[in-house]
Amino acid sequence: MQHVTIYTKNYCPYCRRAKDLLTQKGVDFEEIDVTTDPEGQKAMAVRAHGRSTVPQIFIGDQHIGGCDDIHALEAAGKLDALLA
User: Fold this and answer.
1) Is residue 61 within 8 Å of 37, Cβ to Cβ?
2) In the chain, what are the domains?
3) Residue 65: enclosing H or E segment and its boundaries?
4) Cα–Cα distance between 82 and 40 in angstroms, integer?
């Protein structure tokens, strides 16, 4: 299974929703909380091609996007193949 990284903030409902989907699928993921880490958020934005909102999700080295993006992949039946 691919390594999954998700950048979050502790008060973000979209972050919880994305993490819930990954948990329901049995995916272990690395969570990087940038709530009080401006340097971490800057690093996230660089890695996410300028996107500075959370969550930002990566499967392996591939940038997936945010909550809506990962749910769209799941709805289209494409998420499992990316995780494999």
Assistant:
1) no
2) 4-83 (3.40.30.10)
3) strand 62-65
4) 25
Q: Could you tell me the pTM of the whole model?
A: 0.95
Q: Report the distance separating Cα 29 and Cα 50, nearest Å.
A: 22
Q: How many residues does the chain have?
A: 84
Distance CA 16, CA 35 (A): 14
In tens, the pLDDT along 21-69 reads: 999 999 999 999 999 999 999 999 999 999 999 999 999 999 999 999 9
Using alpha carbons, list the distances in angstroms from residue 59 to 4, 11, 14, 29, 38. 5, 23, 17, 9, 23
Taking the C-alpha atoms of residue 75 and residue 41, their distance in angstroms, rounded to an integer, is 28
